[in-house]
Every structure is written in C-alpha cells, then in structure tokens.
Amino acid sequence: MKSCLFSATLVAAIATLTFASSEVKVVVYAGPKKCSNKKIKGDEKPTKIEPDYVAALHFTVTVDESSTGSRESIGKKIESSRDKGIAPSFPVGQGKVVAGLDQGLIGLCKGSSAYIIVPPHLAYGRIGKPEQGVGRDATLRYDVEIIDVQPPVPNDFVKIDANKDWKISKDEAFSYFEGLGQTINLESLWKDEDKDGDGVISWDEFTGPKGSDGPPQKQKHHHQQQQQDTGQVNDVASLFQNIDVDKDGKISKTELGNMFKALGQDMTDEFWTESDPDGDGYVLFEEFIGSNTGAGKGEEL
Question: Who is most buried in 17, 34, 156, 173, counting CB within 10 A?
Fold first, then answer.
C-alpha cells in the first residue's frame, strides 16, 4: 500500500511494546528429563534433540494464560497434530517453525512430554494469526510429545571439499571416493552436477546430501534477511494498530485522515482510493500491508 511512503515517519513515533516474559520457558512433565548422545555406538539412534537433529513430535498449540496482548483468546487451540493423526518431523533450529519452538525443543529427550511457553516476539509477533483468531502479542503454549529423534542430514559436500573453498574440484572428488574405495565416473558426475560448466561443483549445484551448513555468507545473509523481514512486518503491524484508534481491526477514512493531520499533511482522495481497493470504506490489515506480507517465519507450527 502507498502508506509505506510515510510509514518511516509514523514508525518513529510508535512506542516499544513490552512482554510479560522475553524468554522461552520449558517444563518437562512426563518422560525422561535427562539424556545424552555422547555414548551412541553403531546403529544406535540419538535420544536428545540437538541443533540440526530431526525431531518427530506431536504438538498442540494454544494461547497461554500469561498472554497479555490477546486476552480474549486465552486457552484457544490454534492447531494440533493429533487432530491430523500425523506427527510432523523437521530439522530443529533451522527456522522451519516459529523461533521460540525451535529454541524450546533443543535438549528435550525422546519419549518426553513438555510444555513450551513462547513469548510473542518469538512466535506470531505484533501481527498475531488473524486467520485462526489469534490476536497480536499472543504468548503461545506448546504441549509437545517427542516421538523420535534422528541425527542431522549428513553434509557430503563439506566432506568432499577438502580445501574448504565451497567448490568441489575433480581432484577433490577423485580423492574422496578413492578414500572410500569406490570407483566413480567423474565425467558423468560432472555432466550431471556442474550446471554452469565452469569445471567445479558449487554448493548450489551439488545435489547430494549437504545438511544445513552452507557457505558462511549464505548463512549470514539468510539470517540477516529473516531479521530484516520480521522487523519490517512488526513495524507495519504497529503502524496499523496506532492508526486504528477504535481497535476494531480496520482503518476508517477518518482514522487515516487524522493520522495525516497529526503529521501536518492532508490525505488526498486518490490516496484513499488506492488504500481501499475493494471500496468497502475500510482498510483491512491485508490491504494495509499489501505486498509486504512476504516476510514469513518458515513453516507454520
């Protein structure tokens, strides 16, 4: 929406929200509380969730009673894997779920059940999850049961890349497979993997198992982009809430006009028409945020 033209000015006037708790809280109420992966041998499977390990779990997420920003939905069930009869699995700590759940799962043991209390800024933030009736600044409560724990997906790329330049040469590939006692047709491999024909296989070109540890710059850029996207969405949400004086979840022409007046400006009819594309006389959050909704948090959970 065109309001982004003056959003920077408005955001500067928005007060910082405070939360009842800024930390993730974990309470194990059933099953093992201590476990270790240090003495695993042979075909034994890990029992403790560590970063990048794949966890399978049942979960039920509700709005926690400590939530200060969404009191009307206290106790509301948002989602449950048990309703679907399937325990999802995903690598922990890679942003596949909300940040607070990622943090809370680390250290839990296979067979344990726990409550994970996630503060708003590590969950749905200032926007909430309106499509499921969850308002802004909601503290979430995850009731999880850890069904299984698997080791991280192996990173064959790093093993082959002997000089650690994030490119695999034919010499490196030959040495790696020779060390394994395997014979490989390098020409055939390069034909399949070296997409740009530059003589080396890059991280992006490599189709074998490579876990989550990519080139440092890619990791840094991805992390920075996630932080930037989350910050932008939260700023827009705060802006919407400040303009929506009567807190009915939509902005009227009067409310938006008053905000312009507070900035010493006049809102034009053209601006309002662009802001209210469906012409119903109100600007909903979906209309307000426009194309900025691309800032996501990974998969839902």
Answer: 173
Read off the tokens for 260. 């312009």
pTM above 0.85, yes or no: no
Q: How many whole angstroms separate alpha carbon 119 and alpha carbon 140?
A: 7
Tell me the pLDDT band of 191, cut-offs 50, 70 and 90. Answer: very high
Contact 26, 65 (CB under 8 A): no
The two tokens of residue 1 are 């929406």
3-state secondary structure of 158: helix
Kind and range of the H or E element at 168? strand 167-168
Sequence-distant contacts of 279-282: CB under 8 A, at least 24 apart? 281/252, 281/253, 282/250, 282/251, 282/252
Closest CA to 232 of 6, 19, 11: 11
Pair of tokens at residue 107: 């250290």
Distance CA 283, CA 124 (A): 21
> Dihedral (C-alpha) 108, 113, 115, 120: value to the nearest 10 degrees?
60
Residue 31: CA count within 13 A, CB half-sphere:
17
Cα dist from 85 to 90, 110, 177, whole Å: 16, 19, 43
Do 122 and 20 touch, CB atoms closer than 8 A? no
| E runs forming strands in 122-236 | 140-150, 167-168, 201-202
Distance between CA atoms of residues 34 and 116, nearest Å: 17
Q: For 148-161, write each residue's pLDDT tens digit.
A: 999 988 889 999 99
Contact, 144 vs 57, CB < 8 A? yes
